[in-house]
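Re: that chain you flagged

S.,

Sorry for the slow reply, it's been a week of failed gels. I finally had a moment to sit down with the sequence you sent. For the record, here it is as I used it:
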Amino acid sequence: MYPLKTIYVTSPFGWRTHPILEVLRYHTGVDLRARTPMKTFAIDAGCITEINHDTTHAYGKYIMILHANGYSSFYAHLSRIDACVGDKVKRGQAIGLTGNTGKYSTAAHLHFGVTKGSTVGTSDWVNPLEYLERLKEEEYMQETIITLQKKDGSCHDLNGQIYKGITLAPVRAIGEALGCRVDYDPVTKYVTIIEEEVK
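Prediction finished late last night. Pasting the structure tokens below so you have them in one place:
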């Protein structure tokens, strides 16, 4: 889930020349184009830990959301905030509108950041685009139990993973180790021996 429906980066994460101060500063997030007020969405479920309504603050109106994995997402320069501190939000829930608030905003946009901390003053910022890619991968991946079913009816549970409906468990390696050819059913999550000897 992305914070905006369309993503166009106007200023990347990391060191840059500050557009107003004209000195080298570390950019703690990415700036995303939003020429008109656009709905801003929570990238994942979480609890809102911080909100600012002061339009003269460097980040203007902003929201910070703490997620279950310990990371926090940050949405700044908003024109409107549609949530309160303590609110529990769902992934993809609209939380406000983009804007041009804050003394360090030069045009309407969304400053989007991700941090290992829980406050704006933290120094543990990470590249938010890389974080979104990791989050996207995790959506499709879940731990599961792969069950190996032998011809004699006996079953053995194996730790594995399903990725987009395809097993990440080394099914072929399992078969080779057992000296047989196997098949995997993603619905039943059973690995079945279909031939006793590997050819």
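What I noticed first: The first helix runs from residue 128 to 139.

Talk soon,
D.
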